[in-house]
Design brief:
heterodimer, A: 302 residues, mainly alpha, B: 637 residues
Amino acid sequence: MSILAALLAQGIHIVLMVLTAPTLAGVLAATEARLDGRHGPPVLQVWRDLARLARKRPLLAQSASSMTPFAPVVRLAATTAAAALVPSFTLGMALSPLADLLAIVALLGVARAAAALTAMDAGTAKGGIVAASSMRLALFGEPALLLAVFTLALLAGTSNLDLIVSLQREGMMQPAAASALAAAALVAVTISRSRDAADPELSGGTLAVTGLADAFGVLVWLNLLSALFLPIGIAEAGGGLVAWLVGLAAWLAKLTVLALALAACRRTFGRHRPRATAELLAVAGLLALIAVVFALSSASSA
Amino acid sequence: MSDPILAALAVLLVALFGLGVLGAVVPRIKGAVDLGCAGLAGFGGMLALLALAAGNPSTTLELPFGPADQAMHLALDPLAAGLLCLLFIAGAAIAVIAEATERKATTGGAGLPISLAGLGLAVLAADAVTLAIGFSVAGAALWTCAQPGRARTIQLVVMLFAAAGLFVALALLSPSGAASTFEAIRATPPDPWRAGAGFVCALAAAGALAGLVPLHAWLVPAACDSPPPATAMLCGGVVPIAHGILLRIAAELTGPAPLWWALLPLALGAATALVGGWQAARATELDSAVAAISHRQTGLAAMALGLVLLAKAADLPDLAALAVAAMLLLLATQAVCGTLATLAAAFIRNGAGTRRLDRLGGLGHFMPLTTIALLAGVFGLAALPPAAGFASVYLLFQAILSAPRATGLAPSLVLAGAALVLALTAALSGTALVRLVGVACLGRPRTPRATAAQDPPRPVRAALLTLAGVSAMLGLVPGSVLRLLADPAIRQLTGADLGGRAGLLQLSAVTDAPGYAPLPLAALVALCGGMVVWLQRRRGLPPGEAVPAWQDGFAPPPAWMPFGDPLTQATGVGFLPDLVPPRPLIRLDVRRLPSLRIARRRAYLRHAARHLPQQVPLALLVLLALVLTLLAGMGAT
């Protein structure tokens, strides 16, 4: 029975992710436009764009190799896999033994590398610049992220996401200061995750795949933040239907609040220049480093 | 069971040496010598596997030559068998490739078999003299392969220095008056001072051979100045073997280890990993970038050695087992993926006629298989799942997580620093992968010469693909590989084993706890990708139509530039942040003109001021490091 429930929970989670990702992108775009004082596109516009693009025959650059159709699929697959592993409304899903935080972060790294390789494939100036700047920013962002993950793993004694979330849910992650610092680092990384500059050489179905991967990326980040640092209402492993429903409602509420906050942050900081982003990420790295030191020295005195 | 295997391995080493001598005497038969070398290496690999599978404890063999009381000793134990297995797999692939590519060459036939024999002797050695002879023979053999020049001389000097250093280290460790055999050293552990001196000596010698900072400068030039087989032998053979021997001396022969021993390899390894990763992401030449990526792996292995010693000092055998597993997986990755990437880079260099990244490009169209091999090799070394590089970094992370925590800020800073270095080099490896493959193999060709590049002949392709398969296997089932190749050695060195922590499906820090599961993760990603492709195919759209690339509205390139303007294509600049402001372009000779000199200084200061805000994150990091070190020094907690 519990295996069936875990499978069912995983299935529901994946369907939820697929339904939510493009909608969330639409909500973000609409909210940002409203905060700008514009009317903005309808919330479901992202869905329409995806459907329209998926029907179009792609145009490929003559100089592109088979990397151009292949790498975006890898990127989407890695991001979707990460989305399937980060819990939303309940813990104890069927794939939860695979949900290692380090592996999830590294999967997002695979997605980034695939995106950068796609950008370089056509051999255009813009593509090269896009790839270089995204990898340069990753050099600041990824250590911050890994150190934050390291802090959480130190506090929880494991790097499995499900176990960390359930410990966090019971308030067992001590000291709270280290956890809060790690949270701040993750928030900074999330905010600085600007939409990637569009690669001019993608079109049709390939562009749809890339857009979907972008949408999934934002969803993974918000889900990670809500599961790790706001685990309120999330159902325990083996919880009943009522717990799932409560978890679902709580997750939707948290996602809405986080999405509005993210839109407000993007609006406040505006389109920051790469240099400002690098500084934000470096600060995130510092916060995460302090969090590690905090966690290590407190764990030893405890 | 193991005794005949050891005897067979000894005969095999002699046969390899004899083959090399034959190749030197009759240069015409170089092809046959290389083929024979591949066969012998393959056979040796199987013998080593057999010894591992038989699972016998170590056996020794006393050879009937040498000075009266200094007879040569060989020993086959699980660690030696695992290292030999790696060495011979890499050696067989390298020999096949040497046969196919250098068929017409009439020199250098002796180098490969003799260097294999020398390294094999060093692995099997059970006393100081044999170890030193093994490394000296390998060094001399590799010297004959390399192109004449300064790099080759320095390489020989380093190899001889390492041989001498290891001899001195073992002499220091051995009890006075007795022969410096491993058995004697194990029987009477040295007193702390001699043990410390011996450890430092061994670290300096093996560290120089493996390219640890500060003795790293020779490695990359030496790797770039040799023909492909010698380069691959250096990166995939010599470096992992040097580390393996260091692991044996530090974990088995020195007796109890005080805490400060752990700090040396941790610090040197961290510096090496950072230097290697950084060089890999900014090198302007293909083969030096590949050598630097492999060099980063060396640093990580030294960090793992530091963790082994830390666990030994704190008497935590489970942690020691985890760290040894991380180190052996790093060595295996370097032997397989490092060899593969080095060979692929060498073929690209030969095919496209240049090693400069800004003259390569678009090779994916002309050398598809070599491109795949390069991608597989560099991906295997990078910290991205499901590559073997990620599995080893994961194990290192877990080892740091479960490292003992002493009270006080200073020990916390050491572990936090190790985690920071690991995180930084993981990011650097991804950057290096994208930059290397993106600039060299994707995009448009930059020179007509590059368009004439072709994949190497069929046997070479087969060897490259086999290595790629092995590297994929290392990444997908690291648990099983560790159980087979490393678990006996781990038991020998630490007394604990991986047991339930390494299995077919997953790799974890604690038995029966969820960990990193590469095979299921890869299956999940493949399933998601398959769904996407299926959805795309279901619509029945025709494949994409090829059109000229959009150049941001600029005019199409002129007719005499059939591949477009090479200057409009990325050359791998800008993947790293600038650490120091670039110098302004004033090229006048102004030494004699004071006013111009002042003008130049002012121009530089203005330039630096403009670039200064970019340095803010770095400055913050350095500041924080200084403050934390100060606090740690004051004893604050």
